[in-house]
Sequence to fold (738 residues):
Amino acid sequence: MKKIYALLTLALLFSSNAAKADEGMWLLSLLEKMNYKDMQAKGLRLTPEQLYSVNHSSLKDACIWFNGGCTGEIISSEGLILTNHHCGYDAIAELSTTSDNILDNGFWAKTRAEERKPKAPMSITRVVRVDDITSEVLAKIAGVSEKERFAKLQEIYKELQKKATEGTHYDATCREMFKGNAYYLFVMEKFTDIRLVGTPPQNVGKFGGETDNWMWPRHTGDFSMFRVYVGKDNKPADYNAENTPYKPMHYLPVSLKGVKEGDFAMIIGFPGRTNRYEFSHGVALATDIVNPNIVNLRDLRLKAWKEQMVQDEATRLLLSSDYASIANYWKFFDGEAEQLKHNKVYDKKTAEEKAFAVWAESKEEYKSLLYDIDQAYTVYKPYALQNTYMRECITAPSIMQLASFGMSLDALYNKINKIKADKTKAAADKDKEIADLEAKIKSTSENLIKALAEVPYTDRIKIADKKIMAAMMKMYYKNIPSSQWPELFTKIASKIKNGNSDEVFAKYAEMLFAKSMFASKEKIEAFLKAPNHKKILSDPAFIYLKSHADNYTNKFKPKVDEFAASALALGRKYIKGLMEMNPNRVFYPDANSSQRLTYGTVKSYDPKDAVHYDFITTIDGVIEKYVAGDYEFDLPAKLLELYKAKDFGRYAASNGKLPVAFLTDNDITGGNSGSPVMDGSGNIIGLAFDGNWEAMSGNIHFDDKYKRTINVDIRYVLWLIEKLGGAKHIVDEMTLVE
Fold:
């Protein structure tokens, strides 16, 4: 055990000169030992204590986890938060109505009283400290079987988290690194009274839409602003009109100096997931099978929704948030598959594994590892689409999402029936258990009402959902082997004649929507007034969903779970072996939504022969792309007026142009959206909001030639706030560095 930990520590702390400066998502608490000298050489002017400190103000305190999926930064002494427009999109959309359409028109609170509380719960989370718990966890997990490992880890986490937060208002979470070769505990402070301060119109915040998504050159003003409110003791508190703005431990000054190629740039954020130590088999699976199916399934939803959204403003507002979310990763999965091929990632992984095989030949612990990996994927491959199709196909239509509550209610009713039939229990015990289950039925019913509010079944949405349902049945029919179908689907498919499935599936979808209570708000509300188990059991949407769920749970989930556990264990051993094989290589852990720092430089690139992309774009490019009335490339009339007058104020660059976006070679992924891009003094120079198309294989392989981060220039953000939004008072709240 001590040997394993010593090996890992050596691998982590070895001179960072062995790694590229722009590659790696580094733990802030380890920077002083690993990266600090290299960062200094590149342009960092802060001390290690100014980057990460437990007892004093540091950059880590200003860079917050935004609503559990993005990053934000505190940019004033009054708890003002800056993040991406697409990170605040849900809150902005739900606060929008046809009579007060802030999504389309923009919004800027003139006073604190005008700042708006979103309807859905929101949170921001600050990292208090990070503890290395590797030796403690590895000692407690020693000898535990792979089957029991997960449960044991949860037990260990619970104990350590309780110990770390006892007597405080903090939360804690344990994070596994290197697939279980290292462990860290993050102590966090979570705030829940978050209010919208401002947003540009979405034709600025989403300018370019899906056409420009993941692309450079980029011209998107991707930002929104919120504020954190707290109790009078400056500690987290539930929403209360009497709450006051948060006084942060640290906030980021805002630089007006601008950027030039080669400038140092660092990003702190909460990157979601990477899999840089993936096997070649996993690359092939993603490239050839999984990603193309996800893309095609999501494409069905997007096309059906778009048909209705362009015809009706109310429908567009209702679906806009879901549409943006689905579309973002629809394009991501498409790009990832394409770039995995283009960047020859499979070949690179294969070469690495061949080198490992040669090294491992004489190592008893590792010599059969690659064979075991090959066997695990060979067994799993025939079932690899089952999980994808349950998530992206069977449960994707809105009617099935609502019918899933029927599944929950059915399970509760079955438990009640089982208790009633149990002759070994005392009547009093039965009554208590049944009462508890009935309370859960009530709670589930209330959640169904909430879900119904989020999926309002207007006629237009029903038209789209019905079309989606029929098209997805056809995709399932084409791509899942008939031997893996549930009995009900086999029965439906038996009606297909001469291979023409369209009519059969369209008729089935029509029947489903005509007869299921989950296709009607009125029918659901009537059911909830007098819940009835028999009514659920006879509902066609419930029957369809349950047939697929039972088929998956009974036949395929055990195979999927077995493969996942096996792949994790094999991956853990593989990383450990790689560390032994490469003692001079610096290893960094995969992203896992924990706070990380990446550093590099402002940098242009050449995507292909005879093509050069500059590192910066300007408002001239925004105007060049402008198409009046277009869903993706329209612009506010006031912005056009400001451009015509060249009214750029103090935000213009030295050449008189207004910067919009710039590139760096920082290593980021999903979850970094909204992360601050900072100069060597810790001043914010921009917000990270996207990656580039040529490096979309980045979650699995870092490409030092093509990998870029697309950032909105902070000068464009400030110009939009002050000039377009007329909200100079918000800019005045910040600390500006000239």
About this structure: Residues 1-123+192-272+590-738 form a domain with the Thrombin, subunit H fold (CATH 2.40.10.120). Confidence is low (pLDDT under 50) at residues 1-19. The chain has two domains: 1-123+192-272+590-738, 280-568. The two ends are 53 Å apart (CA to CA).
